[in-house]
Batch of 4 targets.
Target 1
Amino acid sequence: MTELGAFLLSLVPLLALLVFLLLGRYPGCDAIVRLGDRLAASAASKPKAAARVRLPLPPRSFAPGGGLLLALGIAQRPPPLVAPA
């Protein structure tokens, strides 16, 4: 009986959500609207992008990096010396 009780207990939130949706209530809808209003109000109070000063970008480096650096390092290595027999 405990397995059936645990199974039914895990179905309670799903059934409650299904009942709310069938009755036309959408849980969390008001919270989403409030969050959107709050984000819109904070975006309106921030300074405009034109008023901000942009710093110049650093110069682009054309040096190889990562896997290409390893590949170039291996490719420029001479073949191993052959020991005299």
Target 2
Amino acid sequence: MERENNKHQFEVLQQTQHEYAKRNIHYMGITITIIVAFFIMLFVGSFPVSLPTVRVMGFFFFISLFEFLILLLDSFVLSPPFHNRPLILWLIKIGVIALLAPFQHFLERGVIDLLSSKKLIEARTKFSIKKWWLGLKKQPETRDEGLEKETAVL
């Protein structure tokens, strides 16, 4: 009987660990997706694109970023103590979202202004990978400071 009980507890523990691993993979996938979306937004913003395109990309990026933050807050901070109290959980999340909304709009406006300005395009031309690569391949200049052809320099 005790062996069956231990076997059942071991199976429950394995199932719980499998669920945690699956949840962590989902969180990692969301994180990678948000980071890739940010770099795509910066890459597309370095080219002359229409302002509505930049605004839509920025809107979806920041909505997904802050919703992910709310998801993490809900899963790891709020859910354990308030699991069976949906009204309190709902009110706390409304308060947190109300505090984060102005910050989200501030960041969104700043990034959209940066992407829609010419600064990013100018920065892209200054920091071109092609120019950097050509600078690395450039041969060092030889010094001819009045030395004869057959003089050894140590």
Target 3
Amino acid sequence: MEEQDRKLFRMLGALSTVGITLVVSTVIGYVVGHYLDGLFQTTPWFMLGFLLLGIAAGFKNLYDQTRKLMDLDRPNDKGKHDR
């Protein structure tokens, strides 16, 4: 398999996980907050706080994955500057 094909499959794999992790982190934040609200009778404060934390974690992961994909798409310049 050629290097170009490997890069393509790596990029497709990374892209497929972005949407899943965004949803999962949001749902986990909601569930934890909802559980804590039931435990401490503070509805809806923990749910809102952890929901926002989950959304923020999802977007941070989206940012990190985008940076990683941009690095994969960039041509390999290591040999040009080693002289």
Target 4
Amino acid sequence: MVGGGLMLLFGLLFMLMVIGLPILLIVAAVAGVWGLSGRRSGTVASSQGYDKPVASAASSTHYCSHCGQGLQVDWTHCPQCGAAV
């Protein structure tokens, strides 16, 4: 009886390894791709060929009259074009 229970345990462990391991690898691959694509969700491609962060609504209350870049209240010059605010 003890040998049969032990064989059942090894059978369940083997089945878990055969079925569970591929599922775990697929989930890890999807999570990795999702994580890599999520890193770029906070950027907008600019015309200069590099990415700049998107200004949040809380930190950007007005915009540069020269280039339209979002500006924070305490800024005196636009970080994009250098124009005085």
